[in-house]
Amino acid sequence: MQPSFSSLLLALLAVATFANAERVAFEPCSSGSNQCEVNWVEIDPCPEAETGAPCRTKKGKAAAIKFDFKTAVPKDKLDVEVFWASATGDLPFPGFDTDACKYTQCPVAADTAQTLTYSLDIPKKTASRVYSVKWDLSSADKEVRCCFLTKIRIY
């Protein structure tokens, strides 16, 4: 069976979107992960990744994030949430679509590397500063949970 034109176009678009992406530093959440492991994280654009500095993202633009994960148990559906991890508590980013199955393949197979790709729109009214961004990928029953933090500088 030959791939459709739309699937080829989607594949080419994904490659073009991440042609300049950089692997960035990340750390696991202090609350940990369950039955899930994040292997790498890429953000586009992020030329700052080479120096270890937070990725610079302009207000009113999108930052594309892509991360590779593997679960220890299969799940039919996953949700993803993104927060600003502040000293006073986690604040959700506005307008974030939490259905992870729109951004990675579902159902999720056990012990199989998968990639989630998401374009995060940064509202123009966001304050300029460095944010510790928390990504939380989980099943509804929380049996599977991948959680990590990375930094971005919004300007």
UniProtKB/TrEMBL annotation:
Keyword vocabulary terms for this entry: Secreted, Signal
GO molecular function: sterol binding
Signal peptide: 1-21
Keyword set includes Secreted: yes
InterPro entries the record matches: Ig_E-set, ML_dom, NPC2-like
Domain annotation MD-2-related lipid-recognition: ranges: 26-152
GO biological process, one term: sterol transport
Location relative to the cell: Secreted
GO CC, one annotated term: extracellular region
Sequence similarity: Belongs to the NPC2 family.
Protein name, as recorded: MD-2-related lipid-recognition domain-containing protein
